[in-house]
Amino acid sequence: MKDKIKQLLHSESFVGIACGVLCLIVIAAIVLGAVLLTRNKTEVTGENPASDISFALPSETESVNESSAAASDASQAQQTSSSRQPAANTSSRQNQTSSQATTSRSETTSSEPEALVEPPKADANDYKAMAAQNTYRAKLLAQNYYEDFFDEPTRIQFMNYPFSGAASATTAWEYGALMSMQTMMAKIDKSEIPLMETVIDGMNYYARTKDGELEAYVVNRGSYPMGASGEGLAYDDNIWIAINFIQAYKDTNDRSYLEMAEHLMNYLWEEAWFEPLGGFFWDYRKEARHSCSNNPAIKPYVDLYKITGKEVYLDRAKQVFEFSVNALKDDQRNIYEDLVGARQVNGEWVEGSSAGTGFYSYNTGSMISGASALYSVTHDQKYLTEALECAEGAYKYFGNRNQVKGYVGWPYQRENGSETQIWFNVILLRGYIDLYDVAPEEATKYILMFQNSIDYAFDNYLDNGYLPYDWLGGWHNGERDRYLRALDHSSNIEVYAMLADWQSRRQ
Q1: How do residues 148-192 score in pLDDT, each as one tens digit?
Q2: C-alpha distances in angstroms, 183 versus 41, 64, 140, 501?
Q3: What domain count does the chain have?
Q4: 24: domain range?
Q5: 62, 25: one domain
Q6: What is this structure's pTM?
Q7: How many C-alpha atoms does 372 have within 13 Å on its Cβ side?
Q8: What is the dihedral of CA 460, 149, 65, 491, to 10 degrees?
């Protein structure tokens, strides 16, 4: 993988500047190599296997068209490595050609991999044992994930494994999901904090500055830390990143993480709130207001209120809640539509309709989290009612009770079947776990559905450290043979980490 990274990170703009220095280095290397060859009488041959690999920085799924940022020189990406190093996977990989093969992460750092010891099969009623089992499974999946998808020295996360054509870096959305996964890993095991700090450091490559200060995080990775450019900024990405910074603050008590979260949530209000009618726009084009750019903002505003005591955050949380319930909710199903638009009539803004724009599990899951958080600080029954209604509504609409007897499956494809999105279900599970804090008896039944389903996948379909997108149906449609996606598999890890944390807190 190191050879590939070197190829990936050479920008055209750097070539002219570095040409002279590189020539000197090459000459010195030739002289040194000749001396060593003579001394050791060792013949060395070979060529760069990654010479035909290009680096593509893709636009975010279903959204923002932005030109890719230029990649930086590797020397700019070299930073302090984490002390925790996931183990190299010793089992053979399926359908991996020589051109797709990657080197072990053990070549990028010198630390020893963590030795994992599988605990005995846990009894479902033994919460402590279940927490240990979930922790082990999260760590096991994470080892292969970091080996295949993440290059620690350069902080690059790859979109797919094996590489399909050009090796592509993930967008801010997928990298934010990695950050979310690792902050949760750090929550259940403090030894994971150094790796969490490394991952968070990599988020800087998506940061755009204004007047020398952080503005926000844009879709595509930049060429150096705090050097991302372009207008492709999605406001929902920044909400998820703020949520991750809040969790990192809780993991470490490092106030710099709290300050980052405050900055992003304040930026969101200043730049994205639609004053005439309310609601946050989804991206910089300010064309529509989505559930995914509103519902997820409620809980971080409540969290910031709890931590700082600033009433403005609680007021904002309430305003977002009211907008979402009034403009985005399907009152018959008790779940949330995707988006709503607005139009001008005689110079006045008129709210549109969200009906028929689509249902995705994370939109309702994030409202369960937000309403539960509001109830926890206000004790206003309307918030708890909303959380409970949405919890049941999501189960009835998204839960598949006919796939495997005794289990509930969760959607692993978008409604139109275009692509898999396990990550949506991570946010739904997070909602159920947040509901547990205010309604433990009601929430437990939903959370156990997730526990049982992912355990079914682990017990029946685990393949070289990976689980299928379809937990109950297994690998199909050639997905295991074609490639794996970073976003889906960080999601599986985070599910186990969240379940480990929850089982450790069960009453």
Answers
A1: 999 999 999 999 888 666 678 999 999 999 999 999 999 999 999
A2: 50, 27, 16, 12
A3: 2
A4: 1-53
A5: no
A6: 0.81
A7: 26
A8: 40
